[in-house]
Amino acid sequence: MNGILFLIPVALGLGLLGLFAFFWAVGRGQFDDLDGAALRIFIDDEEPRDAQD
After folding, report:
1. pTM surpassing 0.70?
2. Any idea of the CA torsion for 14, 19, 21, 23, to the nearest 10 degrees?
3. What letter does residue 43 receive in the DSSP assignment?
4. I want to staple 25 with a disulfide (CB 3.0 to 4.6 A). Which of 14, 30, 37, 53 is the partner?
C-alpha cells in the first residue's frame, strides 16, 4: 500500500512533465514542417562524397 502512495504521484508528475514538454515543443515550432524532413532525403547533395575518405 505504501508503494502505491509513492508511485501514483510519481506517475502523475511524469505525465505532467511529458505534457509540458509536448506543449513546449509545439510552441517552439517543432511540428510545423512535418513533410520537409521526410522529403529532404530526395534532395541530392551539392558535392558527391568520395568513397575513399
Report:
1. no
2. -170
3. S
4. 30
Are 31 and 25 a contacting pair, CB within 8 Å?
A: yes
Sign of CA dihedral 35, 38, 39, 45: positive
Joined grid coordinates for residue 48: 558527391
Tell how far CA 15 is from the center of its chain.
15
Q: What is the DSSP string of 3-53?
A: HHHHHHHHHHHHHHHHHHHHHHHHHTTTTS-HHHHHHGGGSPPSSPPPTT-
pLDDT score for 49:
66
Grid cell of 34 as nine digits: 512535418
Mean pLDDT confidence for 13-34: 93
